Amino acid sequence: AKKKTILDLYKMKENGEKAAWIVLYDSCFASYAEEAGVDMILCGDSMGMIVYGNAGTVPVTMDMSIAHCQGVRKGAPNTYLIGDLPFGSYHISAEDAVRNAIRFYKEADVDAVKLEGGVAVADKIKAITEAGMVVFGHIGLTPQSSASMGGFKAQGRTVESAKAIIEDAIAVYKAGARTLLLEGVPEEICAYVHKMLPIPVYGIGAGIDCDGQVILAADSLGMYKNFTPKFAKKYVDIAAMATQGIEDYVKEVKEEAFPAPEHKYKISGDPEEFAKL
Ligand code: KIV
Ligand code: NA
Fold first, then answer.
1. How far is the CA of 256 from the centre of ligand 1 (A)?
2. Which of 119, 131, 168, 250 has a CA 20 to 30 Å removed from the CA of 141?
């Protein structure tokens, strides 16, 4: 299939076709996702937890993000790819935000960049957009600010918090973001924002009333054992399959069942000459 553009995403919204995107960080999984026909891939800063074993996403750097994004792009050359601006890469100034967004485009061939926050980062969204790049907004449960939220907690459950999310959604839209992702909010809030904004609104842990869904490959394929959010569905259990496979390998090495004849190289030449070595 031909790689999608932002216009295709708008067309999908117009036609009521839901977009399915997935979060992953390497070329192998990117190739599986492309073959499976995913609409978009996010090389998320959740790599800080899934790949690097941190408790959160805060330690992720630009260099880590770029390196993983490059791998994903090579594995999925024809899939819409979103780079995830890591914590600290767009907070200091609009200039810094533009510089780092440019790195994703120049070095990792992304189609868009995503950043977290609403009213507070509207100037950064505007600056990146004005430089000719596509920004995906991300509000609600924003893992980069988990310290100020007191952990990974659903947002918008009280009227006051819901109002703040709606204000954030408006700010993100007005700043020029081309799509918006809502994470960890009640379905009613997502439905409201979806109805309110003319741009595609996607959800993760935000119910079904929007233009599409995102999920982490780590959650949906059962790779990450430390924690599974309430909103994740496990489609396969890679952790169990991988552990079983490695157990079988260890056993076969001990029993000398591996390597078998088909795994061995054969000599070429006279076996008798080799026997004299
Ligand atoms: O990094 C990530 O995995 C994300 C998703 C939660 C959308 O930003
Ligand atoms: Na992220």
1. 44
2. 131
Is the CB–ligand 1 distance for residue 183 below 6 Å? yes
CATH domain 6-237 topology:
TIM Barrel (3.20.20)
Q: Is the ipTM of this complex over 0.90?
A: yes
**Which atom of ligand 1 has the smallest separation from the CA of 44?**
1
Report whether 63 belongs to an annotated binding site: no
What does the pLDDT read at residue 95? 98
Ligand 1 atom closest to Cα of residue 181? 7
> In the numeric block, which tokens belong to residue 88?
């600290």
Kindly report the protein residue whose alpha carbon is nearest to atom 5 of ligand 1.
Answer: 44
Q: What is the pLDDT of residue 129?
A: 98
Compute the distance between CA of residue 26 and CA of residue 67 in angstroms, rounded to an integer: 9
Alpha carbon of 90 to ligand 2 centroid (Å) = 13
Q: What is the pLDDT of residue 239?
A: 97
Q: Which of 32, 30, 113 lies closest to 65, judged by CA?
A: 113
Q: Which one-letter DSSP state was computed for residue 84?
A: E
E-strand stretches of the chain:
19-23, 40-43, 80-84, 112-116, 135-140, 179-183, 201-204, 212-216
- What is the number of the ligand closest to the CA of 42? 1
The pLDDT, as a whole number, for residue 1 is: 77
**Domain boundaries along the sequence of the chain:** 6-237, 242-275
Which ligand does the CA of 204 lie closest to?
Answer: 1
Distances (CA, A) of 108 to 68, 141, 148, 206, 226: 9, 27, 31, 29, 29
Low-confidence ranges of the chain (pLDDT < 50): none
pLDDT at 15: 98
